[in-house]
Design goal:
The protein has 193 residues and is mostly helical. The chain is built from eleven helices and no strands.
Length: 193
């Protein structure tokens, strides 16, 4: 793929998307320096190239340049509807950036934004981190959202118990009772109701 893209470039095709695609091709080969060079060249040609901005932001995140990653990813969000699927990549990477910058609450808030757009987008360990932060900060609404999604992705008795306890604290007794009933297991046949 890279060779074909290079041939297009030598033939005079100078579209920013070509440079961004070259960046992706070299990134897939673990050639991060070349990928960065292509992403930056894309942004020199077209300063508001959304994909190059997201790709370079993700690359900066993976190489520990967190301030630059944050700046690029935040800027890329300004180029799209922040509540659309197009925002998933920068929101996801920005949540990881915030976490690495030692800002777990900001990260958890970004996780909630991702969940509103596409509930099954994030991995369970990311949801667990967000749940721990939201619980520590006392954000029960956010915690409820995260625990409900986590239970769908990775059901477990412990998670059901945590969710039931939260619902009970919030006065949502009927939903809590249903979860507690599920934890007890099926009622034996012939048992009195």
């Amino acid at each position: 793929i890279e060779q074909e893209l290079m041939t297009l470039g030598r033939a005079g095709f100078k579209d920013p998307d070509l440079l961004n695609s070259l960046g992706l091709a070299t990134l897939l080969q673990q050639r991060t320096d070349d990928a960065e060079r292509y992403f930056r060249a894309t942004l020199q040609q077209q300063a508001d190239h959304y994909r190059a901005m997201v790709n370079l932001g993700g690359l900066c995140l993976s190489t520990g340049r967190l301030d630059e990653a944050q700046r690029l990813l935040q800027r890329s969000l300004e180029l799209v509807d922040a509540d659309s699927p197009a925002a998933l990549a920068p929101l996801t990477n920005l949540s990881l950036t915030q976490l690495q910058l030692g800002r777990p609450m900001e990260s958890a808030q970004l996780v909630l934004r991702v969940l509103r757009i596409k509930p099954d987008h994030l991995k369970a360990h990311t949801l667990e981190q967000a749940a721990a932060t939201l619980q520590e900060m006392g954000d029960e609404d956010g915690l409820l959202t995260v625990l409900q999604q986590l239970r769908l992705q990775q059901p477990s008795p412990d998670l059901s118990r945590r969710l039931a306890e939260l619902l009970e604290r919030r006065g949502q007794f009927q939903e809590a009772a249903l979860l507690y009933r599920d934890l007890l297991g099926p009622v034996p046949t012939g048992a009195a109701a």
